[in-house]
Predict the structure.
Amino acid sequence: MNRKVVLFYLIFFPIFVQAQFGGRRSFEFINLPSNARTAALGGVNVSHFDNNVDGFLSNPALLDSVKSGSIAFTHLGFMADVGLNNISYAQKFKKAGIIGFGVQYMDFGQFDGFDQAGIATGSFNADEFALVVGYSHRISVFSLGVNLKFVGTGIESYRATALMLDIGGQFKHPERDFTAGLVFKNLGFYLSNYTSTANSQLPFDVQLGITFKPEHMPVRFSITSYNLYKGDLTFFDPTSETTLVNTPAGVFDKVFRHFNIGTEFLIHRNFYIRAGYNHLIRKELRLDAKSGGAGISFGFVVRIKTFEFAYTRAIYHVAGGGNYFTISTNMHSIIKKKSKA
């Protein structure tokens, strides 16, 4: 991997996550989809209710619906050999209730370092991680949850750590297939920064969404709004030669950049097809001539006995996208079956 890849990481990778905020905030990797399901539904979802343990990484309130012993592993194969690995586990304790544990690790690989004169200084690594502990509690049709996250990042000799908090809530209709979720994400403070003069920001966000299934239809829809703390997400530069930034955005475009749409086709109870669209990613990462499918995602999930396998292809740019693989099961169920054998 060479300096061009480093440049890609420093500039473009944060951009696809939070549009023009790229380069201003640290720990943006934590806003990547935590599993193949979320990635397939457009990349942002805080309301989907399906007993998947890794959902609490998006909204801690969803942990209340998870069975004890549930475990999930997700791998994202990204461009330039960048990889993201997430593992989530939920355990019920007698007094405390169910608690979720998560580890998120992103590896950017090894780089060749050079000084200002172009002289080689040796190779170095770049990576980011998050250790997450979550808890939720249900009161009637509402559940409230909180995630405590210790987050760290490093590139060459520069390191930064932070303590963050997610506060989430969920409403589940007692009779209909309808849920709503609200999350305040990544509240917190730095424990240490890259340098004494660094002024990096945390990737704070407010997300609100609903998931519903029309009666008698084998389709489930999710609509999620995010970046709600900031109104206009567009960038306008009349002096630029690029059509994407020298043309003012319309009202519809500005509003729709806050929304993410996902759909599940319930073919069989053990087989779903998923698709999503993220307008912000499409507008921010398309080229003047074409979009290359940016902002579109699709995938499927298949359940075989106690295991669930999910795959998603998320397109971010004409140059490519990411492949998400998630496998989940319940450790308690496996142990019980082995004990009976």
